[in-house]
Specification:
single chain, 407 residues, Growth Hormone, Chain: A
């Protein structure tokens, strides 16, 4: 880590900024989920949150990738993060106690969906920018370590954010949580501003936007290793997203407060960090494709254990081990994207990756909410774990290029 920071001092600013920004995102996600379920008592409300964010994120993703490739990534990232602050401020105002008498439950619920929709718009641009900017901050021979460090910072934020959010809500109130989240994002904006202006790598002269976008899609479709890795990750998380229902499990099944929910939300991230630190010291050598599929299958089994658990620490352990296995597939996918993709297409390919990620996370949250409404909370998570195992079986049979992948 210190070697990379010494070689590339500006990369340090980027890593810290990303950590603070993702921490704020996770704090807001946990806070909104807890507040909405407390307000409505309806698991489907958590699903509507995911749908509100995924619609703009997917709709704008391809254009966002084109925009990333033809823009100075530093400026684009700074602007997207600044606009995110405005949306979080709107969420903070909507959750004030006084708003209940002014807008009523339905009014507050709709207002939250609106601002979540806005965050989806801004994240459509910040997501691929964060992913594609790394290759301009470090040289190619240092990319694998830089990717591992960036992914680790993301996971550290994913652990610290939920725990801090749950603690602030339990000990103080949700307004204190939003205040800190806003402060973290503003600090991240300041750090991104310290980065140098970055050269535009794709000028797209004489090329229409849609033609530029199609090239990015075509590259992903033709590169079977990239398409296979993205598809397996998307469907596994889409169906295995048990964390979407954590407010329900925390309150109604495990009977813990917001602090306990924050710990459960962080459990996967803790497991992922442990595995990333291990892989940073002992990198995967050969048969990465098989390793990815094995780990996704184990992820599905962990979700099944979480679904049937009635003990807080067993549930925590199941999520912790799911994070261990998820880290392997995440790192392999990230490495494939950086090593296989040409510099002038990173933004567009990263935007396609963002579509897969948003589909699996936010659309998965909606799927979980709808399934919980139709099947019940526990059966819906059991169904998701079984579907994850089915996805691995289909990928093993239908995607031999992914199974045989080595780098």
């Amino acid at each position: 880590m210190s070697i990379l920071f010494n070689l590339y001092p500006k990369f340090r600013f980027f890593i810290i900024a990303r950590l603070l920004f993702i921490m704020a995102l996770q704090m807001v996600n946990v806070g909104v989920g807890w507040f909405l379920y407390d307000l409505t008592g309806n698991p489907l409300a958590l699903g509507w949150v995911g749908l509100s964010e995924v619609i703009p994120a997917i709709s704008l993703a391809l254009y966002a990738g084109h925009k990333v490739d033809i823009s100075d990534k530093r400026t684009l990232l700074r602007n997207g993060m600044s606009l995110y602050v405005l949306s979080v401020t709107g969420l903070a105002l909507a959750t004030l106690p006084a708003m209940l008498s002014i807008a009523g439950k339905n009014g507050i619920e709709l207002t939250i969906y609106f601002f979540i929709f806005c965050t989806g718009v801004f994240r459509a641009f910040t997501g691929p920018t964060f992913q594609s900017i790394i290759a301009q901050l470090v040289e190619r021979q240092h990319l694998p370590k830089a990717i591992t460090m960036s992914t680790t910072s993301w996971q550290i934020a994913s652990v610290a954010g939920p725990v801090l959010s749950g603690w602030l809500i339990a000990q103080w109130n949700i307004s204190a949580m939003f205040a800190l989240a806003i402060l973290l994002v503003l600090t991240a904006v300041f750090l991104i501003k310290a980065l140098p202006r970055l050269a535009v790598q794709h000028t797209a002269l004489g090329q229409r936007t849609w033609e530029s976008v199609k090239k990015g899609i075509s590259y992903v479709v033709k590169t079977k290793e990239v398409l296979g890795a993205l598809s397996v990750d998307m469907f596994a998380v889409l169906f295995g997203g048990a964390t979407a229902m954590l407010p329900v499990f925390a309150k109604d099944i495990l009977h813990v407060d917001a602090t306990g929910m924050g710990m459960l939300k962080a459990a996967q991230g803790v497991g992922t960090i442990v595995m990333l630190l291990w892989l940073n010291r002992y990198p995967l050598k050969g048969k990465q494709g098989k390793s990815m599929l094995y780990c996704v299958a184990m992820f599905g089994l962990c979700i099944l254990v979480f679904a049937i658990s009635r003990n807080f620490w067993l549930s925590f352990a199941a999520l912790f081990f799911s994070g261990l296995f998820d880290a392997v597939s995440m790192l392999i996918r990230s490495t494939i994207l950086q090593l296989y993709v040409p510099d002038d297409m990173r933004g567009r390919v990263s935007s396609v990756n963002s579509m897969f990620i948003n589909s699996s996370n936010e659309l998965g949250q909606f799927e979980s909410g709808m399934a919980a409404r139709l099947l019940g909370t526990v059966p819906s998570v059991v169904f998701g774990g079984c579907m994850t195992l089915l996805v691995v079986a289909v990928a093993w049979w239908k995607a031999p290029s992914l199974r045989k992948l080595e780098y």
